[in-house]
Amino acid sequence: MSNDTLTHFNAQHRAKMVDVTDKQTTSRKASATGQITMHPATLARIKEGKVKKGDVLAVAQVAGIMAAKKTSELIPMCHLIPLTGVDLSFSDNRTDTITVTSTVKTKHVTGVEIEALTAVQICLLTIYDMCKAMDRGMVISDVHLLEKEGGKSGHFVFQP
Question: How far apart, in whole angstroms, are the C-alpha atoms of residue 114 and residue 34?
Answer without folding.
Answer: 14
